[in-house]
Amino acid sequence: MQTHQSPAAPPSFPPWRPHRDPWMPPDYDERVIYAVRAFAEGKATEGQQKILFAWMQYVTSPGQLSFRPGGQDGMWNTAFAEGKRFVGIEINKMLSPLLTPPESVAEQIAKASKPKAPPVIHKGNRGKRNAR
């Protein structure tokens, strides 16, 4: 399996700029591509996680005004921008200390995420019904 390594971030990080229209595809670069791929595989380094989080903030623009002027077109652009912004706000909400679960919940999650052994299949009983 290939491991995704992204190049080191240059001093201009992040280089992405907002677009006038919210429906325009967001900017990205090689670092973002590698970070997304590594994250999807569960192998993202700390740096890749930071790049991905910064890019998600850029894409969703939670701290930006979503209003777009311009009559009917402005209304649709505002609705689109607000949908993106909502996603960013929900992601940022998860970072709030008020939402931190108690330690007991964190322990339960850690136990549940451990891989489980596959079930044991006894060859003698395969496909047979119990006779009563």
Overall pLDDT level = 84
Computed CA radius of gyration, to the nearest angstrom: 23 Å
Order of helices and strands: HHHH
Biggest sheet character = none
Query: What oligomerization state is this entry in?
Result: single chain
Number of helices: 4
> In one word, what is the shape?
elongated
Domain count: the total is 1
Which percent range describes the beta-strand content? Answer: under 5%
Q: Helicity range of the residues? A: 40-55%
Low-confidence stretches: none
Distance between the termini: 50 Å
The computed structural class is mainly alpha
Number of E strands: 0
Question: How would you describe what is shown here?
Answer:
- This protein has helices spanning 30-40, 46-60, 71-93, 103-112.
- It is mostly helical and 132 residues long.
- Helix 1 packs across helix 2.
- The relative contact order is 0.11.
Quickly describe the structure.
The chain has helices spanning 30-40, 46-60, 71-93, 103-112. With 132 residues, it is an all-alpha fold. Helix 1 crosses helix 2 (46-60).
Any descriptors?
45% helix; elongated; 132 residues; 0% strand; mainly alpha
SSE layout and pairings?
Blueprint: H1 30-40, H2 46-60, H3 71-93, H4 103-112
Helix pairs in contact: 1-2, 2-3
